[in-house]
Specification:
This protein is mainly beta. The protein has helices at 33-41, 54-73, 79-90, 131-137; strands at 152-155, 168-170, 175-180, 183-188, 194-199, 206-211, 217-222, 227-231, 238-243, 250-256, 259-264, 268-273, 282-285, 291-296, 302-307, 312-316, 324-326, 333-338, 345-350, 356-361, 366-372, 377-382, 388-393, 400-404, 409-414, 423-426, 432-436, 441-446, 457-458, 465-466.
């Protein structure tokens, strides 16, 4: 039996940087300076022109020496020498250059267009001195490079190959929760320590895991329809509550402060206030088949649910009926993600018969765009640092794609999993994603840039996190377990 979260020697990938071999070139230069200058101070008297007097030869030689020093050494000529140069320069060859010989004079900032902005040959409509001209003249950013290989691969034995489950989640405390068979394990990205949180026994299996936003409490959905809430903060692993209400497995969970939403194969979504003693405070009825995707918006006002009935519903906290219904998908809707950059912007993905990522504006009730990805869409997550998102896929390519929004141009396509990439979570700093698949591996990828402000970021690990505040204000009501 393999140990969970061990590094398989066949698949472990270390991203090492290879230094290129530079080519050294030697440029032989003339040791000019004083030696070259000294040779110009004493012009030769030999080889005088026929018919020229000695005084005229000396004047011409001195002017010639001054001209060479001016051209080669860049030394300005004295007023007396300039008079001698006047006659000499009039007798120059028509092909003699008018600028300093063998010298390159840089007169301004480099321009990428046709000629400098101040040149009469410039095609630029703006001058180089203005703010716009300086912006246009600045070099363009090189495209961001995304590593095509994971920097870490961990074994995850008994990670189920089931499209409708959600078995991986990453907390604000930088702890990864993974459901493996009947057990839940916690893996610390800071220390790589592994903790076995719970064992459900031989008659049950883990179907979903979800951390609170602040990362102290973990909800675990089971195949028997129960929901366990654990206090899994630093140094604490204690089950504090068991909640019922579902008749079948709980495959998806979503937190909104003290409200926990759970979706089940019984087609219902239950709203649970963990501060209240009741198992649930509201039942949302609308789906005709298993609920496999749930996500709260960032302002906690709207809940999106996706089902195996190919429907996407939008609910608010004040009603038990969906306020928006979308039926454009042609397969199960598990992949759901709200944009952190634009209010009301929602992305959803369909299964094998659909293969599309669709974008919705729930504020205006508008279908914005549809992208055919060519594969079953299993997960979606937005970057909180840049306006990009990542999708994971199943049949038939098992790929991971990084997209730029709103153009939906592909920044990278990552491969490595040999089964459907059913599970996805993002690190608290928004730079790293972890993917899980039926090949029983977890793979870590660096796909997004870091946040612009690193003021409160702890750089102790690749999954850096800002220290969250306490969850004590939403501690669940105690109930016998």
């Amino acid at each position: 039996r393999r140990k969970p979260f061990s590094q398989p020697w066949l698949s472990a990938v270390d991203s090492t940087q290879r230094a290129g071999r530079g080519v050294q070139r030697q440029v032989h230069t003339v040791a000019a300076g004083s030696n070259l200058q000294q040779g110009f101070l004493e012009p030769s008297d030999a080889g005088a022109s026929n018919g020229m007097h000695t005084s005229e030869r000396e004047d011409a030689a001195a002017a010639y020496s001054t001209l060479l020093k001016t051209e080669l050494l860049g030394q300005p000529a004295s007023p007396n020498a300039q008079k001698g140069l006047a006659g000499l320069t009039d007798q120059r060859s028509p092909t003699s250059p008018s600028r300093n010989l063998f010298r390159f004079k840089h007169t301004g900032s480099p321009q990428s267009g046709h000629g400098a902005a101040g040149s009469p040959f410039s095609l630029s409509p703006v001058g180089a001195e203005g703010a716009l001209g300086a912006t246009l003249a600045s070099p363009r950013r090189s495209p961001r490079k995304i590593a095509r290989s994971p920097f870490k691969v961990l074994d995850a034995p008994e990670l189920q190959d089931d499209f409708y489950l959600n078995l991986v989640d990453w907390s604000a405390h930088n702890v990864l929760a993974v459901g493996l068979g009947k057990c839940v394990y916690l893996w610390s990205a800071c220390t790589s320590n592994v903790t076995k949180l719970c064992d459900l026994g031989p008659n049950d299996n883990v179907c979903s895991v979800s951390w609170t936003q602040r990362g102290s409490f973990l909800a675990v959905g089971t195949n028997n329809g129960e929901l366990h809430i654990w206090d899994a903060g630093t140094g604490r692993c204690k089950k504090i509550r068991t909640m019922g209400g579902h008749r079948m497995r709980v495959g998806t969970l979503a937190w909104s402060s003290h409200i926990l939403s759970s979706g089940s194969r019984d087609r219902h979504v239950l709203q649970r206030d963990v501060r209240a003693p009741n198992d649930y405070v509201a039942k949302l009825v609308g789906h005709k088949s298993e609920v496999c995707g749930l996500k709260w918006s960032y302002d906690d006002r709207e809940l999106a649910s996706g089902g195996n009935d190919n429907h996407l519903f939008i609910w608010n906290s004040a009603s038990t009926n969906p306020m928006l219904r979308y039926s454009e998908h042609q397969a199960a809707v598990k992949a759901i993600s709200w944009s952190p950059h634009q209010h009301g912007l929602l992305a959803s993905g369909g299964g094998t018969a659909d293969r599309c990522v669709r974008f919705w504006n729930t504020t205006t009730n508008t279908h914005l765009n549809c992208i055919d990805t060519g594969s079953q869409v299993c997960n979606l997550v937005w970057s909180k640092n840049v306006n990009e998102l990542v999708s994971t896929h199943g049949y038939s390519q098992n790929q991971i794609v990084v997209w730029r929004y709103p153009t939906m141009s592909k920044l990278a396509t990552l491969t490595g999993h040999t089964f459907r990439v059913l599970y996805l979570a993002i690190s608290p700093d928004g730079q790293t994603i972890v993917t899980g698949a039926g090949d029983e591996t977890l793979r870590f990828w660096n796909v997004f840039p870091g946040p612009k402000s690193q003021g409160s970021v702890n750089d102790s690990s690749f999954g850096r996190s800002a220290a969250p505040t306490s969850d004590d204000d939403m501690a669940p009501a105690q109930k016998p377990v």
